[in-house]
Amino acid sequence: MRQTLLLALALLATSSHxxxxxxxxxxxxxxxxxxxxxxxxxxxxxxxxKLVGGYLFPEIGRRRTAFLEANPTAKIISLGIxxxxxxxxxxxLSGLVQGAARLGTPEGYSGYGDEKGAGMLxxxxxxxxxxxxxxxxEVFVSDGAKCDIGRLxxxxxxxVVTAVQDPSYPVxxxxxxxxxxxxxxxxxxxxxxxxxxxxxTPSNDFFPDLTKLSKRPDVIYFCSxxxxxxxxxxxxxxxxLVAYARAQGSIIVFDAAYAPFIRDPALPKxxxxxxxxxxxxxxxxxxxxxxxxxxxxxxxxxVPKQLKFKDGSSxxxxxxxxxxxxxxxxxxxVQPGGLAILDDEGMAEIQTLINYYLANAAKLRQTVEAMGxxxxxxxxxxxxxxxxxxxxxxxxxxxxxxxxxIVTTPGAGFGPGGEGFLRLSAFxxxxxxxxxxxxxxxxxxxxx
Length: 448
Hints:
about 450 residues, alpha/beta, seven-stranded mixed β-sheet, 14 helices, globular, disordered N terminus
């Protein structure tokens, strides 16, 4: 009894010392008021110092917020970020509802799942979207393509040379910089030392001349339909990309997030439609644009088992280790929604959604072309890429925001090759697109 009492007193003294700490001294108080801060002894990742400004879309959001604070009655229309706006269709929604409801029953409850994703979903992806060119075991279900790009960079590490289309989705470059694959940025060219930039312009039909790359790349990031240009690569172009990768021993990371927007049957929707790609390519994809899952978060990456590193080791095995280490699997509420997407009813609902957004894209392109601008994309992709005729993309962004209260995306945010262009997103309501077109005609119309 006496030992128990002594132990209790000791614990009370310890806890009292922890929770009833002495008041700060006058010296400490003065130090804080003078702006002196306590800092840890942990070195910051120096690669963050290389990044220029903030990530593109938060920066656009910051400017939008600042404009609204100064103009609180403004009615903003967003043609900027590629965020879907239409509700999730009924059949697809029913899959999400059922997935959530099952968790409320003893027989339906589940905890952690396979980090690669539910077997039924992987099998359905392989069959419905790839015609079984790949196997279910090569599919890694995830929380989205953007997240998987980061995980792929983690797998590749810092000692690789990355190549990107110029312009391109900023995630490819920013993750390469953060991983330590690059040097600093050249102030004149606005390019990072160590990254191979592949110019994609109207003059080369937005496909790079692979014979003129500055050095051999280890990893080639390629997006089709492209973000930001909205242009899809032809079969012949992708055949040349695969042939180049095989000859150089490079790995293609093919971003097919906008594949369902392809309407031309001659255009490939997957890199694995190209012979030889199973030995040199990885494909990332997402249900975000398929079915309005931008906030739901469900995607996948295909890593063929034939794909090997230089030493003959399996890329598939290493990515499997990354997923097992850094990811606990996609939500068990969301994955039944993915299964519903791939039902015949779900696929029909997707086509209705895509037709809706492509009609918006056609309207936007027709509008800017009628004003005398050259425009690209919008036929097999949800983005319209407008040539500003030498004007600064950020200046035009600001002018349109201030005069028309429309948010767009400056091409410069996608790399130096995007300067002088503006990206318009079709992911808005039909009504907002129609009103935006009327406003743009008043602000962007070229003087005769």
